[in-house]
Write a structure and sequence with these properties.
alpha+beta, Arc Repressor Mutant, subunit A, 2 domains, three-stranded antiparallel sheet, WH_DNA-bd_sf, Tscrpt_reg_TrmB_C, WH-like_DNA-bd_sf
Length: 261
């Protein structure tokens, strides 16, 4: 009995409500006077509880004089409680204020070792795709970890400078003069996008410190994906229309770039 009363109280019923429901389930139809006498409770309190439970649809009340109350069958009673709980849970889920999420952060790393370590860790957890844009000097550094990823089914998409000294037409425009170029831009650039949700981009070599920027910011991911897509498009166009493009716009699209220098 005590355990039953405890479970009813955990469902939100008061101690008196729980005792009256259990009593009516056991004894059957009873008047308020009979309930108060058997439970040893004040008649006014018992009548107030009976009316409250009746209003909630948990008790049935006869039209006789005196009125007699009966408890719903257990399966009907528990169904009502279950529906109320589900309705409340649904409302709480929709109405509860959402916790503000912090904006994606940017982390700066310096030096080959920390960059290689975090990159190896992320590549090891890649699920379906790694997009790589780097120079041949850096490609060898990541050969082993990328090979492992490919062997477990991760798709690798490359944009790699062959190291023959030729400029990619897409990089034809240099917005800084030699005197204005920040140290960040003096090295060879590289970037990785893993599963289209994590990215690392940076520069290395040419007597500058290796530096990298790590972020999951969706805007940066979108920019890098767009940059990579443009390189693919430019490559395809050059393969199909190379001489025609050079004839019309000059080597490395100089006639276009010069408009915006």
């Amino acid at each position: 009995m005590d355990q039953l009363l405890q479970h009813l109280r955990s469902l939100g019923f008061t101690e008196m409500e729980s005792k009256i429901m259990v009593h009516l389930s056991k004894e059957g139809a009873s008047s308020g006077y009979e309930v108060s006498k058997r439970l040893g409770a004040s008649r006014s309190n018992v009548y107030a509880v009976l009316q409250r439970l009746h209003a909630r649809g948990i008790l049935c009340c006869s039209d006789s004089e005196p009125a007699k109350y009966t408890m719903l069958p257990a399966d009907e009673f528990t169904l009502i409680i279950s529906n109320h709980v589900q309705e409340s849970l649904g409302y709480v889920e929709q109405a509860m204020p959402k916790q503000k999420t912090s904006s994606p952060e940017f982390a700066t790393l310096q030096g080959d070792r920390p960059i290689m370590e975090i990159l190896a860790k992320e590549i090891a957890t890649a699920e379906y795709e790694i997009i790589i844009d780097l120079c041949s000097e850096e490609a060898s550094l990541f050969h082993d970890v990328l090979k492992d990823a490919e062997e477990r089914g991760v798709r690798l998409l490359w944009s790699c400078d062959a190291g023959n000294g030729e400029n990619n037409p897409f990089f034809g425009w240099h917005p800084f003069t030699d005197q204005e170029t920040p140290s960040l831009f003096k090295g060879r650039t590289f970037s990785f996008i893993i599963d289209r949700k994590w990215s690392l981009l940076g520069s290395r070599g040419n007597e500058t410190d290796t530096i990298g920027l790590v972020t999951e910011h969706p805007v940066m991911i979108r920019l890098l994906l767009g940059y990579f897509a443009q390189e693919l498009i430019m490559y395809e166009l050059e393969q199909d229309l190379g001489p025609e493009i050079q004839s019309r716009y000059g080597p490395h699209y100089e006639q276009i770039w010069n408009k915006y220098r």
